[in-house]
């Protein structure tokens, strides 16, 4: 099972936007780089978009881009789409204005940095990069080039999640957030071989969604990870991760990828405790508020023309290129989500609580080392600390 076949919260077809985003101008001509499972999902997303148009597809495997175009793009539209193995060559031939980087995580840093330095803004699939040091380096490359680099965290673009935030705010704001995640997928492939499949490949979505629900900046992470005796994964398929925020809020994620029987939605099940009551969300339907002193309130259903997941990421990115607001997942903001993931792995491996400020300082040193070998960006030299650098994005 490819990653792209991971279920989305709603069928993508139901999410086709009807209303152009504010600030939108001409369609943004884009090249999709990486023609694997998720790359094909992105090709389809661009094809149905009212903010971007597909002008090229790239894959490092010879012939893979042309094959993906033949599979996904209607025959009548294939002629105008450039294909090849080199991003900058295809982007130039296709007169692209932006790149969507859907390569494997190990390729995110070189593909994105090359595109930025060629003057092309980038919308990248999660994770931002393979390591936190590479992610921090990319924040520096975005500064050095002045080009937008945004990470698509698709599950953040779920109208129910934002409705849960609105309901929690009406009750005084979420101070205790709990996520329960139980699934039992048989992926095969790399997920069944890696050391921390749940934390790295899945919990990143919940950590990022938690940041939508909670005010403030994450401070520390404590994690326990384990592999139940019946697990079909080589690495730890279950974990409990506790993230503290400088607002005093705490987000606890408890999840498993080997729990058949009572399963949650792919977004997990959420409870938000606030001063004036609580909010419950099953990850699929509108959340519900339970005020301490009143009747239960069912949250608003999403608007018919609401944009979801990849459609929303793309529309937000294109709107930003046409003068709209900078997306919340612009690289400087998104690095915090990757920092939580890396801190959770380190805490699980060491048994220690990990302070994000320390981890980010270490990543800053690592990013500077990468940049000095690369020679194209000196932006990180101006960062006083990892935390401080991320707040200037
Ligand atoms: N948001 C989500 O829910 C979600 C779901 C699945 C995957 N993803 C992310 O999408 C990305 C791609 O995942 P996938 O499942 O499609 O992987 P995949 O292995 O199926 O496809 C990746 C493709 O990138 C190509 N590639 C690798 N290096 C390249 C380079 N330097 N230049 C051009 N092409 C290159 C590979 O040949 C391959 O065809 C990953 O970052 C993954 O984490 C996100």
TrEMBL record:
Could you cite one Gene Ontology molecular function of this protein? nucleotide binding
| Highest taxon in the source lineage | Bacteria
Gene3D superfamilies given in the database record: Dihydrodipicolinate Reductase, domain 2, NAD(P)-binding Rossmann-like Domain
GFO/IDH/MocA-like oxidoreductase domain ranges (all copies): 193-263
Name all Gfo/Idh/MocA-like oxidoreductase N-terminal domain ranges.
Answer: 30-151
What Pfam families does the entry give? GFO_IDH_MocA (PF01408), GFO_IDH_MocA_C3 (PF22725)
**Keywords for this protein:** NAD
Q: Which SUPFAM superfamilies match?
A: Glyceraldehyde-3-phosphate dehydrogenase-like, C-terminal domain, NAD(P)-binding Rossmann-fold domains
* InterPro entries named among the record's database cross-references: Gfo/Idh/MocA-like_OxRdtase_N, Gfo/Idh/MocA_Oxidoreductases, GFO_IDH_MocA-like_dom, NAD(P)-bd_dom_sf
Q: Which residues form a coiled coil?
A: none
What's the protein here called?
Oxidoreductase
- The organism's taxonomic lineage, starting at the top: Bacteria, Bacillati, Actinomycetota, Actinomycetes, Micrococcales
């Amino acid at each position: 099972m490819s990653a792209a076949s991971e279920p989305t919260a709603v069928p993508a077809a139901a999410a086709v936007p009807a209303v152009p985003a504010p600030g939108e101008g001409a369609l943004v001509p884009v090249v999709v780089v990486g023609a694997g499972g998720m790359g094909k999902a992105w090709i389809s997303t661009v094809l149905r978009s009212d903010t971007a148009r597909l002008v090229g597809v790239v894959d490092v495997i010879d012939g893979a881009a042309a094959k993906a175009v033949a599979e996904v793009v209607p025959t009548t539209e294939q002629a105008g789409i450039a294909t090849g193995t080199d991003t900058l060559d295809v982007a130039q031939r296709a007169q692209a204005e932006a790149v969507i980087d859907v390569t494997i995580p190990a390729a995110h840093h070189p593909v994105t940095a090359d595109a930025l330095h060629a003057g092309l803004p980038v919308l990248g699939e999660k994770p931002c990069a393979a390591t936190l040091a590479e992610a921090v380096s990319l924040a520096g490359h975005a500064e050095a080039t002045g080009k937008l680099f945004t990470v698509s965290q698709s599950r953040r673009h779920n109208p129910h999640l934002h409705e849960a935030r609105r309901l929690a705010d009406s009750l005084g704001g979420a101070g205790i957030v709990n996520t329960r995640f139980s699934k039992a997928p048989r992926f095969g492939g790399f997920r069944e071989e890696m050391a921390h499949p749940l934390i790295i490949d899945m919990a990143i979505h919940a950590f990022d969604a938690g940041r939508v629900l909670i005010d403030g900046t994450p401070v520390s992470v404590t994690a326990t990870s384990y592999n139940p005796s019946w697990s079909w994964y080589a690495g730890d398929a279950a974990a409990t991760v506790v993230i503290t925020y400088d607002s005093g809020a705490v987000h606890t994620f408890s999840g498993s990828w080997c729990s058949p029987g009572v399963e949650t939605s792919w977004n997990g099940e959420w409870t938000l405790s606030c001063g004036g009551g609580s909010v419950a969300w099953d990850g699929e339907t509108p959340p519900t508020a339970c005020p301490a002193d009143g009747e239960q309130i069912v949250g608003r259903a999403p608007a018919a023309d609401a944009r979801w997941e990849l459609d929303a990421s793309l529309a937000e990115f294109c709107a930003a290129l046409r003068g709209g607001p900078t997306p919340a997942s612009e690289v400087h903001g998104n690095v915090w989500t990757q920092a939580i993931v890396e801190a959770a792995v380190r805490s699980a491996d060491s048994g220690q609580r990990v302070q994000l400020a320390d981890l980010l300082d270490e990543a800053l040193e690592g990013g500077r080392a990468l940049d000095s070998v690369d020679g194209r960006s000196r932006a990180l030299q101006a960062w006083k600390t990892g935390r401080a650098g991320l707040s200037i994005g």
